[in-house]
Amino acid sequence: MAPTTSTGTVHLADLQPQVTGAEMIAHLVPPPQFAEATFDTYRADPAYPSQQEAKETLLAFSGAGAPAKKGGFFSRAKKGPETKPGIYLDGGFGVGKTHLLAAIYHAMPARRKYFGSFIEYTALVGALGYKSAVEQFRGADLLCIDEFELDDPGDTMVMTRLLGELVASGTKLAATSNTPPNALGEGRFAAQDFLREIHAMSAHFQTLRIDGVDYRQRSLDGHAEVLADDAYASAIEDAAASGVASDDAFDDLIAHLARVHPSRYVRMIEGVDVVGLRDVTQLTDQSAALRFVAFVDRVYDAQVPIRATGLSLDQVFSEEMLAGGYRKKYLRATSRLIASTAA
Questions:
Q1: Where is the signal peptide (predicted)?
Q2: Same domain, residue pair 161 and 232
Q3: Contact present, 212 and 95 (Cβ < 8 Å)
Q4: Structure confidence by residue, pLDDT tens digits, 127-150
Q5: Boundaries of domain holding 262
Q6: What is the CATH number for 179?
Q7: pTM of the predicted protein model
């Protein structure tokens, strides 16, 4: 279960959150950080024209608040060029892809629309079963998929099959990429590899490349903040006095994440105002590291600050890991950890 106290300290390693299919569906909306994200609030970096170009393309894709037409919003107009039903945002971490994805969600005048991470959708298919998931989403106007994964062939094929059925029934798709760069090109998403993966859907997607630097690093020195033991204890005590603070030994939390499905990580931190991690050490197991990445993503999306002791969190992934196929994921997580400890 998630924390039930309104103030005090909890141990995330003691929590066993449960999430029903109905609850998963209800959570398919942009995370709090992007609840108000719009195209107007997206600050395109003039040094990278592809950001403004992507924004303009997505404004047209979303309809920018245009009213639905008779026969359904996604009915094809008799005149004008055909618009592809799917759009894919490709780029490095921290260039605003999720912001733009949320802006599409908010701008599109759709009757039924959903926004979630790839992990959330695959977990929902697992909870409901494939047939029931298809029925749940059939007729939806828009599906936004953040951090589309190509790591697990089984999950990828289930999702691409699902999306293929939804596109055939009139659903529009918008997604962002999250792929191992050493396998698919440093800092880039290999559009053709993705298009081949989704087979019959290949003709339905337009891929947009968004260049830039990580906006989180623009005002940070590149290191996660580390607290001394007494400063950490004081920070957790202060947070617990007015809200809920978690306090876990880093190794205990890492071990516990293996016992909780990543789709439930968001429930672990629900109601938590500060996440405390004691005695951070470098990760040596790839599976544990990837689970920690998923946990960091949920903490960052919820905009929960992190307070930590031990090794600086920007050093938690080894050089060997950073040189491997999941480099992009680890660098994104490092960026988010730096921002979360500075919050």
A1: none
A2: no
A3: yes
A4: 888 999 999 999 999 999 998 776
A5: 8-19+217-342
A6: 3.40.50.300
A7: 0.76
